[in-house]
């Protein structure tokens, strides 16, 4: 069984979502099915069929999240340190052309979120950064062409 890296924060969010599905969503849909069933003829009961579809979706989500939960390799970023970029690092980059500063945290595939400035370990920019240190220049192949960045800071927080 293949493990995959995940931050402690991402693991806790995954656990919370799983608990919500099991403890809130599942009982609510069971109740909705029971109420729809009480309305009589199931063959033409749209409420019943809709609730059964929702139940199938919830159960598949639970199975999917349980699989991810059991295969996660949790890494507590607060316990990491060092000068080189690795999983969990928060990296401050300076764009070589525009001098614009960008800050990214390298996280697991499941917890990547551009809006939160969290990029996947398997993304092109993260792969280019891994193993590099403050002051290094990196070139990243982007859809709009290659971009160059200077690593201004590497932190673990």
From TrEMBL:
The gene is greA. Residues 82-155 form the Transcription elongation factor GreA/GreB C-terminal domain. This is Transcription elongation factor GreA. Gene3D superfamilies: Transcription elongation factor, GreA/GreB, C-terminal domain, Transcription elongation factor, GreA/GreB, N-terminal domain. Keywords: DNA-binding, Elongation factor, Protein biosynthesis, Transcription, Transcription regulation. InterPro entries: GreA/GreB_C_sf, TF_GreA/GreB_CS, Tscrpt_elong_fac_GreA, Tscrpt_elong_fac_GreA/B, Tscrpt_elong_fac_GreA/B_C, Tscrpt_elong_fac_GreA/B_fam, Tscrpt_elong_fac_GreA/B_N, Tscrpt_elong_fac_GreA/B_N_sf. Necessary for efficient RNA polymerase transcription elongation past template-encoded arresting sites. The arresting sites in DNA have the property of trapping a certain fraction of elongating RNA polymerases that pass through, resulting in locked ternary complexes. Cleavage of the nascent transcript by cleavage factors such as GreA or GreB allows the resumption of elongation from the new 3'terminus. GreA releases sequences of 2 to 3 nucleotides. GO terms for molecular function: translation elongation factor activity.
